[in-house]
């Protein structure tokens, strides 16, 4: 009889379970089932099912410089899993499983879709715009570097992946986009806090502590959940710092420039966004992080086009600039309620049929290449067994469609919503 390996899984209470592993079963073994109070906890028994783990020969399709960079960085990834597992095992408990898995949602693009527009309705448009730039380019740059280096996440096993969605584990490791976002946004908050004259010393100290608590929660949570290692966090921090510095510097240098007078500005914004997406580096393995880059570049372009429309056509700075921080509770409730409803209505109900069926396929006559990509993925998946497939790419219609859909979010917040709410008594 053929010998079958046994894997021992340990839960947070120290109970162990021996799992008989067959070559015909799925490589992913869950230690606990998924529930509202019970996030996914699993180990990927076949390391080749996660991107970045194949032998070096698999990555020889890279350019020589790119391959050397990957090989040099790989040594900082390979030897950290045992140390990270020791740290994870030492601190694991059910409360922290729940806490870090749910707080990780603060780094998801769904969270940003719903919550990033909210400061606008409190009168903080300029600050929100800075956050959009920092988050957008942190996502793009971290995704670009992930796909450039093709470095794996820390090994599981020994680490446990603790997550609400196993989809997030299918990306490369370094740099951590959660860490890049948390770093950039936290720095922006701290800079604004230091420049503010509205708060007392005690209030500033309290707000500083809150920002650091948010930052450490997101960053340390990536290690606790078995998603990232030290190199991932360090490189993610560098990306966040870089994007924040560039945004603060450009905001100061261009503060006197009224781009609302430049007719070419919205065209350049859209062309630039689509160009850096279509020229994005191609990974070796299939990796979904590019989709977040498309979404955020769409948001950045939608914000720039909306702001240009306001500056060009509304000389009295009405619309979004009329959202001051002086409001009644009734006005605030109407802004938040209607604004969030409009974003949800556009993003989750109206956008796909309007963008794909009406605009791209009917008006623009754009060929739909989604089925071609899907068939190729199915074929490669069938032939790969339990291994991560080679990079197939995203359909061109999906890149443009997703770009437009996410550009519609700031348009609904900055143009559509204020046009209606400006007549609210």
UniProtKB/TrEMBL annotation:
InterPro entries xrefs: PAP2/HPO (IPR000326), PAP2/HPO_sf (IPR036938)
GO cellular component, one term: endoplasmic reticulum membrane
Domain (Phosphatidic acid phosphatase type 2/haloperoxidase): residue spans on this chain: 128-248
Pfam families: PAP2
Mode of membrane association: Multi-pass membrane protein
GO molecular function terms attached to this record: sphingosine-1-phosphate phosphatase activity
Coiled coil feature spans: none
Matching Gene3D superfamilies: Phosphatidic acid phosphatase type 2/haloperoxidase (1.20.144.10)
Principal localisation: endoplasmic reticulum
Keywords: Endoplasmic reticulum, Hydrolase, Membrane, Transmembrane, Transmembrane helix
A biological process term (GO) from this entry: calcium-mediated signaling
CDD domains: PAP2_SPPase1
Keyword Transport set for record: no
Subcellular location: Endoplasmic reticulum membrane
Family recorded in the similarity comment: Belongs to the type 2 lipid phosphate phosphatase family.
Protein name: Dihydrosphingosine 1-phosphate phosphatase LCB3
